[in-house]
Amino acid sequence: MSVKRRNTKSKQSVIEVMTAKKTAMSHAEIYEKLVGVCDRVTVYRILDRMVEDDEIHKIADVDGSVKFALCHHHENHEQHHTHSHSHVHFKCQNCLDITCLEDVLPVYQLPDSYQAKEVNFSIAGICPKCQ
Questions:
Q1: What are the Cα distances from residue 65, in Å, to 11, 59, 83, 97, 98?
Q2: Per residue, what are the HEC states of the chain?
Q3: Calculated CA dihedral for residues 92, 96, 102, 105, nearest 10 degrees
Q4: What tens-digit pLDDT sequence spans the chain (131 residues)?
Q5: Who is most buried in 74, 98, 101, 120, counting CB within 10 A?
Q6: Closest CA to 119 of 107, 131, 101, 104
């Protein structure tokens, strides 16, 4: 059960920055866009809470860096919000943007004795913007 947290000015600014970018962003990229709204530690705390509240998800890049992307919740017929973080992340080798591709269904098959809890699919290539 998630706790409903208040929407502070700082959190709203983080959401606005992430919404405007439309691709995954690092803590440093988000902080850079916030110019004077809050300090670095506050941005870390906001991002941690948003991950905990399932509003954003972390994407581990192959270079070891972490980026954050807004979660896109889908409503089913019973009006329940559902979503999965097991979608494809596409990294452009030119502009380095990481985009969540939720309409691409990754396929994998594990041996019977394994149970998947979380899946991270990454594809590298050239995005439409850079072609």
A1: 22, 8, 24, 13, 12
A2: CCCCCCCCHHHHHHHHHHHHHCCCECHHHHHHHCCCCCCHHHHHHHHHHHHHCCCEEEEECCCCCEEEEECCCEECCCCCEECCCCCEEEEECCCCCEEEECCCCCCCCCCCCCCCCCCCEEEEECCCCCC
A3: 40
A4: 455 677 899 999 999 999 999 899 999 999 999 988 999 999 999 999 999 998 999 998 878 889 999 987 544 444 444 455 667 889 999 999 999 887 887 788 899 999 988 777 888 999 999 99
A5: 98
A6: 107
Phi/psi-derived region of residue 121, left when phi > 0, alpha when psi is between -120 and 50, beta in every other case:
beta
Neighbours of 102 (CB within 10 A): 15
Domains in the chain, CATH or no CATH each: 9-125 (1.10.10.10)
Q: How many CA atoms within 13 Å lie on the side-chain side of 8?
A: 13
Residue 82's Cβ-count burial label (10 Å; 0-12, 13-18, 19+) is exposed
